[in-house]
Amino acid sequence: MTAFFDYPKGAAFGRLVPKSKIYEYAGANTALKDLFVRDVDQIVWRFKLAPETINLSATNAVTEVQIFGISLKTGKLDEAVLRAVDKAIPFPLIFELTWRGKRMATAAFKRPSEADSAKWVISEYFATGWVPEDTPREPLPVALDLGSLYERMLTAMMPAAGHPGEDIRARVDRVEAIRAKAREVEKIKAQLNREKQFNRRVAINAELRTAKQELAELQHGDVIRGGGSAGGHD
Prior knowledge:
It contains 7 helices and 7 strands; from the N terminus they run E-H-H-E-H-E-H-E-E-E-E-H-H-H. The protein is an alpha+beta fold. It has 2 domains: 9-155, no CATH class; 168-219. Strands 1, 2, 3, 4, 5, 6 and 7 form a 7-stranded mixed β-sheet that branches. Helix 6 (168-194) runs antiparallel to helix 7 (198-219).
């Protein structure tokens, strides 16, 4: 399954979203506004997946799913821009980025905070690669409700395969833990490359072996140690 879906015409929304509105609702500072100006050409609220548009019932966590199209100026987009839009729009979002005849899907797992239902917990972002814009789209995944639809749309972008009995939160936590451990491995490798003293190199090598082993365990679905969602905690 790809992450590019043929959304029903009845769900089309097609409304331009002014950057100024995102600034207002996200509390954007000058640096964030500069990122929008540098990276973003236009933001369009393309589709609204809701009970009245696609005939699936809402759940407590997912009452609607919004599809936002963002046309880019340079082919790159700072994640802070996506996070600002997610912060401004109180629904789960799926983004489709476009640039020079190509498109990419990206999204974070977004859920209401259990500690404060007015706030959202936003994970790290998952994304497809770039594909030609004329690549055929697939029908929406079969789902019982909007919650399960959202999960299936999101998992289509996730790099790690799911495991039996693993729910979406556990899978997101595992992917984030894999990413964090991979970053740790790269950091230790860089430290090893800089180190000249033999004794220190031996110690760093041992640390690197341990980190690589922990990464392998995570990738094969073993227990996560200290995994958690980025962007907020309950």
